[in-house]
Amino acid sequence: MGDMSGTTDGPTGDTTDGRTGDTADGITEAPSASLRSGELLGYPPGARLLIVNCDDFGMYTAINEAVVQAIEQGIAGSCSLMVPCPAAPDAMRRLRRRPEISFGVHLTMVCEMPGSPWGPMAERAKVPSLLDRTGNLFAPTPVGRAELLGQARIEDVEREFRAQIDAVADAGLAPTHLDFHCLADGGRDDIFDLTVSLADEHGLAVRAWLEPAREAMRQRRLPVSENDFLDSYAIPLDGKPVRYARLLRDLPPGLNEWAVHPSLGTQESRALDDGWHVRRTDYEFLVSPEARQALAEEGIRLVDYAEVRRVWLEGAAPGGSAGIGSEG
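Structure (tokenized):
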């Protein structure tokens, strides 16, 4: 279920690709408060930048295989790992073999697959407000999300988020960012604020989707998507490759982000996942020659979350509460 990245350019200061950065004496100039996200990342004004991040890594193996292919053979540059899911151990093994892949922790408080369920990483007795009447995670339906957000205690949310982040660290992996599964910006002000604090603590970036959260991060001079966020589940299946190509050709200047959901569409996918067709069509476009051709013809630069994280590390103030209003 939707909630709500190719090759990456070189480091900031590589003036051979037209980016802004180091001065002639090797000292990087401090960005002004008026700089937009693309400029904070070291790109010139007007540059068209795109993060293509594969969500739901770890949900099941056909997703894991498709995500790796979309990054290694296609135009995706980052992915987000669902730690509680059954195929998370397989996903983490793949990441250990590919330390160059930029990945985040896809913070997960819901479960949409009764045929292959997952629960919280923390002990159920320690996060009771995150569970439904049957003692399981809520389904990400409108009713389920409303009930979860209405009863979730922030201390339980923190305990669960820390358990997911710690599981990644215990596996010897180093994520680049935090984002949310099926809850835009966490669904509540205090959940987003908590996530920003955890990111500050661990030296990570955060995906900000809705405008209040994005504006709060811009006030901290941290790079976030400057334009409307794209969730691939919002794209109709009919004529999807053409729509994707048009979106690339119409991509506005600044930093943009697409949350895509590739899967191979195997029999496993079809048995488990009502959204397998969305995922299969995402995969087909991400690895297609047409996708890379459109990027090249339009002069769009792919950015991954490792690049975003570097700027967050330089600019994030310790502990800062975002103070935003966000909705699920």
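The longest helix spans residues 154-170. The beta strands are 48-57, 78-81, 102-107, 177-180, 205-206, 230-231, 254-260, 301-302.
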